[in-house]
C-alpha cells in the first residue's frame, strides 16, 4: 500500500500526505479504514526506500513505438534524444548538504533552491523514457549521459545538444552500434577532409579517431512582428552517406531533439505544476524522482496502447494532460480499476482518443525568459537562515501615566 501511496503523491502534487491518502481510499468509506497520521506516512516512506521505485521504473522504461508509428523512425533508425533539466528541491539542511544552489556569475552568493540535475534518454516519436540518470547539479551532464549509453542499441539515431559533442562521449556512443546527430560548439573548427555534393563535408573528431560528417546551415526565423533572427548551426553526424541521408533533411530532423523539452514540460509543468519536490531528505528525493518517472512512463505506455487502435495516428496529437487528469479521476472514484471488458485501450485511452489535439498547429516560438514578479518585500539577504522558522514571542506591557511616562510593568 505504501508503494501505491508514494506513486499517488506524484499524481496529486498539490495535496498533503493525508489528502493523498484520502484520495486513495475515497471510494472505500464502507470499510471504515483507519486514516494514518502524517508522521506515520513519512516513516512508511523511509522504510520502503528508493529501490522498489527504481526497479519499477526500469521495468517500465523503454521504447513503445511500433514499427509503423508515425514520427518514431527516420530513414530506418529509431530517433532518440538525450537532454537534461533541473528540478528544484526544498531548502532543508539535509538536502543542501548534497545538492547545491546556483550562484550568480562573478559572485559567491547562492540563490534560489537546491537543484537536482536530471538527464533522460527519450524516444522522440512518443516521448517515452528509455533511461534516466540524476544527482547533484555539480556533476556535469556528460557524466550522467554516460550512465545511460548502455540503453542505446544498433538501429537508433541519438540527437544531442551542443554540450554532448565531446569526442570521448561520442566514441562510447558509437561503440553501442547507435548513430548520432549532434550540434557542435562554435569553438570547434573541424578540418575538411572531403567535400560532398550536398554541401556537407567529411571530417574527424579526436585526432582522426572518429569519422564524422559536418553539415553547416544558417537558420532564419521571421517573427510575426517582422523581427528576423539568423543563427548558424554546425551539425556533426556519424551518418556519412550523403545520398542516403541528405544534409537538408538532417537539419530538419534535428528539430525533433526538442521532444525532450516537451517531455520535461509534461513532468515539471503538468505533473509537478511548477512546484518544488516535496521530499526533505536525499534518500526520499531519489524515491520521489523514480516514482515521478514511473508514473510518467506508465501514462506514456497507456497512450501508446491507445494509438494501436488507430495505426495512422501521430502520437503528437495525444494530450498528456488528458491522460493525467483521467488517471487522477480513476484513483479518486475507483472507476475502471476492474473493467467489465478488458481492452488494450482502457479508460484513459478512450479519454485520450476523444480529446485529440489538432492535426496541424500554428508555428509558435517562446523566448527563454521569465517575467520577474514585483514585491514590496526585500529579498532574503541570508540574514535569516530559513524562510519560515519557529519563534518565541515575549510581550512586555507598560502602564503609562500622563505625559507618557512609564509608571509600572505587569
Automatic annotation (TrEMBL):
Limits of the Transposase IS4 N-terminal domain: 1-58
GO function terms (MF aspect): DNA binding; transposase activity
Domain of life (superkingdom): Bacteria
Domain Transposase IS4-like: 75-296
InterPro entries on file: RNaseH-like_sf (IPR012337), Transpos_IS4 (IPR047952), Transposase_11 (IPR002559), Transposases_IS4_N (IPR024473)
GO terms for biological process, alphabetical: DNA transposition
Basic residues bias locations: 361-373
Span list, region Disordered: 361-380
SUPFAM superfamilies: Ribonuclease H-like
Pfam families, per database record: DDE_Tnp_1, Nterm_IS4
PANTHER family assigned: TRANSPOSASE INSG FOR INSERTION SEQUENCE ELEMENT IS4-RELATED (PTHR37529)
Protein name per the record: Transposase IS4
Organism: Streptomyces malaysiensis
Lineage: Bacteria, Bacillati, Actinomycetota, Actinomycetes, Kitasatosporales
Amino acid at each position: 500500500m505504501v508503494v501505491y501511496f508514494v506513486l499517488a503523491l506524484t499524481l496529486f502534487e498539490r495535496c498533503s500526505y493525508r489528502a493523498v491518502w484520502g484520495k486513495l481510499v475515497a471510494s472505500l468509506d464502507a470499510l471504515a479504514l483507519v486514516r494514518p497520521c502524517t508522521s506515520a506516512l513519512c516513516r512508511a516512506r523511509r522504510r520502503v526506500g528508493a529501490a522498489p521505485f527504481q526497479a519499477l521504473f526500469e521495468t517500465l522504461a523503454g521504447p513503445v513505438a511500433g514499427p509503423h508509428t508515425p514520427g518514431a523512425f527516420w530513414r530506418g533508425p529509431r530517433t532518440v534524444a538525450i537532454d537534461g533539466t533541473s528540478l528544484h528541491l526544498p531548502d532543508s539542511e539535509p538536502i543542501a548538504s548534497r545538492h547545491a544552489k546556483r550562484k550568480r556569475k562573478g559572485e559567491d552568493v547562492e540563490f534560489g533552491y537546491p537543484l537536482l540535475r536530471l538527464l533522460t534518454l527519450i524516444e522522440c516519436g512518443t516521448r517515452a523514457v528509455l533511461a534516466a540518470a540524476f544527482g547533484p547539479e555539480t556533476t556535469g551532464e556528460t557524466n550522467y549521459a554516460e550512465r545511460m549509453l548502455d540503453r542505446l542499441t544498433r538501429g537508433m539515431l541519438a540527437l544531442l545538444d551542443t554540450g554532448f559533442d565531446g569526442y570521448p562521449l561520442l566514441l562510447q556512443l558509437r561503440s553501442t552500434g547507435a548513430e548520432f546527430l549532434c550540434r557542435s560548439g562554435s569553438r570547434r573548427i573541424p578540418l575538411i577532409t572531403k567535400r560532398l555534393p550536398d554541401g556537407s563535408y567529411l571530417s574527424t573528431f579526436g585526432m582522426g579517431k572518429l569519422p564524422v560528417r559536418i553539415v553547416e546551415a544558417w537558420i532564419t526565423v521571421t517573427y510575426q512582428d517582422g523581427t528576423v533572427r539568423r543563427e548558424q548551426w554546425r551539425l556533426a553526424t556519424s551518418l556519412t552517406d550523403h545520398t542516403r541521408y541528405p544534409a537538408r533533411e538532417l537539419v530538419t530532423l534535428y528539430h525533433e531533439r526538442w521532444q525532450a523539452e516537451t517531455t520535461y514540460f509534461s513532468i515539471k509543468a503538468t505533473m509537478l505544476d511548477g512546484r518544488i519536490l516535496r521530499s526533505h531528505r536525499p534518500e526520499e528525493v531519489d524515491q520521489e524522482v523514480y516514482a515521478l518517472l514511473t508514473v510518467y512512463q506508465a501514462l506514456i505506455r497507456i497512450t501508446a496502447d491507445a494509438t494501436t487502435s488507430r495505426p495512422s495516428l501521430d502520437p503528437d496529437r495525444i494530450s498528456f494532460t488528458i491522460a493525467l487528469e483521467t488517471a487522477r479521476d480513476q484513483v479518486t472514484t475507483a472507476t475502471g480499476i476492474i473493467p467489465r471488458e478488458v481492452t488494450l485501450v482502457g479508460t484513459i485511452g478512450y479519454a485520450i482518443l476523444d480529446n485529440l489535439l489538432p492535426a496541424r498547429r500554428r508555428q509558435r516560438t517562446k523566448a527563454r525568459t521569465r517575467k520577474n514578479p514585483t514585491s514590496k518585500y526585500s529579498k532574503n539577504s541570508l540574514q535569516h537562515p530559513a524562510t519560515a522558522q519557529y519563534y518565541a514571542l515575549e510581550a512586555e506591557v507598560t502602564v503609562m501615566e500622563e505625559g507618557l511616562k512609564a509608571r509600572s510593568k505587569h
